[in-house]
C-alpha cells in the first residue's frame, strides 16, 4: 500500500493548495464571485472586447464553461456582451464599471492574502520560495500542463 508521509513536501503542498482554495472561496463569496471568475476579470481588464471564443482560449477553458461564468457575471452586472460591429453573429465581452470596481476589490483582496501568507518571510526566504515554486511550475508545464494567460491580479 502506498503511503505519503505526513510531513512530505507533497502532503504539505496539497494542504496549502486546499487551504488557499478555501480562503479564496470565503473571500470571493461575499463579493458574489466564484473562484474561477477572477481570471475573467483580470483578462478583460487588459483585453476588453474579446470574443467569447478568444476569452475561452486565453483562459484555457471550454467555451461552455465560460458561457456559464459569463451568464452569472452578466446577471450580477460585472460584464456586458455586445455584438461585434463587423459580424453581428459574434459577441464581444467587456467589463462594466461595476466589473472594473470589482476587479480592483479582488486585486486588493488577493494582495492582502499574499501579505497574510508571506508577510512573515524574509526577502531571502521569499526569493527561495519563488525559485522553488517556479521550478515546480515549469516542471508541471513541461509535463503537459497549461498556464493560464493574462497578467495575474492586475486590473489596469
TrEMBL record:
This is MarR family winged helix-turn-helix transcriptional regulator. It comes from the Bacteria. It comes from Paenibacillus mesotrionivorans.
Amino acid at each position: 500500500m502506498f503511503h505519503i508521509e505526513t510531513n512530505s513536501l507533497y502532503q504539505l503542498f496539497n494542504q496549502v493548495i486546499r487551504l488557499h482554495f478555501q480562503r479564496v472561496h470565503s473571500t470571493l463569496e461575499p463579493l458574489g464571485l466564484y473562484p474561477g471568475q477572477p481570471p475573467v476579470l483580470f483578462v478583460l481588464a487588459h483585453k476588453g472586447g474579446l470574443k467569447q471564443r478568444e476569452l475561452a482560449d486565453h483562459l484555457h477553458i471550454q467555451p461552455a464553461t465560460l458561457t456559464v461564468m459569463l451568464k452569472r457575471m452578466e446577471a450580477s452586472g460585472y460584464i456586458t456582451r455586445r455584438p461585434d460591429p463587423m459580424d453581428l453573429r459574434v459577441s464581444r465581452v467587456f467589463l462594466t464599471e461595476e466589473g472594473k470596481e470589482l476587479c480592483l476589490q479582488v486585486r486588493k483582496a488577493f494582495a492582502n492574502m499574499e501579505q497574510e501568507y508571506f508577510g512573515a518571510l524574509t526577502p531571502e526566504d521569499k526569493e527561495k520560495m519563488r525559485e522553488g515554486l517556479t521550478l515546480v511550475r515549469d516542471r508541471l508545464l513541461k509535463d503537459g500542463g497549461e498556464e493560464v494567460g493574462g497578467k495575474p491580479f492586475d486590473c489596469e
